[in-house]
Amino acid sequence: MSDLLITHVDILTDEGVLKNHAIEIENGYITSILTDDEASSVKANAKETLDGKGQLAAPGLVNTHTHIAMGLFRNYADDLELMDWLENAIWPTEAKLNDDYVRCGTQLGIAEMLRSGTTTFSDMYFFMNTTAEVVKETGIRSVLSRGLAGVSPTADQALAENTDLYRTWNGFDNNRIKVLLGPHAPYTCPDAYMEKVIALSHELNCGIHMHLSETKGEVENVMKATGKTPIAHMYDLGLFWNTTLAAHCVHVTDEDMNIMAENNVAVAHNPQSNLKLASGIAPVPEMIAKGITVGLGTDGSASNNNADMLEEVRLAATLHKARLYDPKAIPAQVAWAMGTVEGAKALGYNDLGLLKTGYRADIVLYDVSGMHWMPRYNDLAALVYSANGSDANTTIVGGKILMKDKELLTIDEEKLKAEINKAQAYFSN
Ligand SMILES: CSC[C@H]1O[C@@H](n2cnc3c(O)ncnc32)[C@H](O)[C@@H]1O
Ligand SMILES: [Zn+2]
Fold it and tell me: Which residues are recorded as binding Zn(2+) (predicted)?
């Protein structure tokens, strides 16, 4: 008996679009993809059915890098470069955060993601036990890391919190929640602290999530201090022994990319944040050519300024064309894969990001009735180049429906809006 049967739906598979088919789901996984005729014979055995008529089923988007509670600081400080933005606007304000505000900001970000087709996110922030609780309650999938800064007075406490987070949550609900260690960046994590992080990663057998080579200034400073690039320096410290998710990697050399490819360092490419903070453009086609796994991320909504992954997919598909004067630099299907199955791989999920038997049932049904969906020559190109996040109509994670016909089923949005207004008043002072 299946738990959920989605009928009369067009399905974006890795082999093309199947018109008017059905998806059978059991225990959180896709168990079969059927013709509509086949589906009518198994319908009686389904606990729940969902009519997908007029919709396109696609894999949920995977946001490989964010600080999701930063939605509270959306449009709070704009038009600044990274270090000015962090040091003079964001860090002083984050010092006023507590569990309640992180709960509110995390609900805001999750509401936004579920509404725009994202079903998995990888987060690095503070008060992460609260984030995990909100992830548990809302039903989304996530990979969580406690941001670690060696220069902070709470540096050792943060390590203990990341350890607790790992021990409490890693593997929760058949890996709906996973945990990584989150050393923030080379400029906040001196070598002695990185050595502690690396020792802890061995002790826990835990992967790493870190900002690396985001700006020219960061690379210059590490070069001055060590004679090496941040990637080469982290490699020499022994950081890459286990899985590493490196956010940004905007300023990397050919040799850096060789190190990343040889050590399975996956990249979270955040094109919109990199543009807005004037950090630059990461050499993504070059990374892919070297065999590096590259996923996409929004970064926080204070540097983006939203959590809409379709915008990142579109930027990934267009930005590199212009940079290289090559329309084939990142074709639509490569950008789509970066937003889904490649992002999933970057987070260590090898059964996520495709609509295929045996894959996790993280599925988004897009309403394709809008004029911007016509004519329908190529649904994948439409998702990459024409669709809006708000076309997401129904969002499913691990076979559970979290948004149906644009109504969020696990978040009380009216209550949340009132809390966000209170938070705005608090952070405005
Ligand atoms: C220690 S928790 C994470 C930390 O990262 C800050 N942050 C947000 N966006 C960026 C970015 O693009 N580069 C580096 N750091 C960033 C966030 O505000 C938190 O303080
Ligand atoms: Zn970031």
Answer: 65, 67, 211, 299
Residue nearest to atom 19 of ligand 1 (CA): 125
Cα separation of 377 and 91, whole Å? 47
Q: In testing the pocket of ligand 1, which one of 73, 121, 184, 273 has its CB within 8 Å of the most ligand atoms?
A: 184
Ligand showing the shortest atom-to-Cα distance for residue 187: 1
Residue with tokens 């039903």: 139
**Closest of 120, 118, 144 to residue 133, by C-alpha:** 144
pLDDT tens column, 327-368: 999 999 999 999 999 999 999 999 999 999 999 999 999 999
Question: What mean pLDDT is reported for the chain?
Answer: 98
Q: Are 369 and 54 in contact (CB under 8 A)?
A: yes
Domain span(s) for CATH 2.30.40.10 in the chain: 4-58+361-408
Phi and psi dihedrals of 167, rounded to 5?
-70, -35
ipTM: 0.99
As given in the structure block, the two tokens for residue 427 are 């952070």
- The CATH class given to the 4-58+361-408 domain equals mainly beta
Specify the CATH number for 61-346; select among 3.10.580.10, 3.20.20.140, 3.90.1150.10, 3.40.50.720.
Answer: 3.20.20.140
Q: How confident is the model at residue 25 (pLDDT cuts 50, 70, 90)?
A: very high
Residue 363 phi/psi, 5° resolution? -135, 140
Residues 208 and 186: their CA atoms lie apart, in Å, by: 13
Alpha carbon distance 249, 66 (integer Å): 15
Write the residue with the smallest CA distance to atom 14 of ligand 1: 211
Q: What's the CA-to-centroid distance between 321 and ligand 2, angstroms?
A: 24
67 annotated as a binding-site residue: yes
Count of all residues that appear for the chain in the document: 429
pTM over 0.90: yes
Separation in Å, CA 117 to CA 114, 138, 325: 5, 14, 30
- In eight-state DSSP terms, residue 60 is P
214 CA: nearest ligand 1 atom: 13
- CA 63 to ligand 2 centroid distance, Å: 12
Confidence grade of residue 399 (pLDDT, cut at 50, 70, 90): very high
Q: Which of 161, 107, 62, 183 is nearest to 169 (CA)?
A: 161
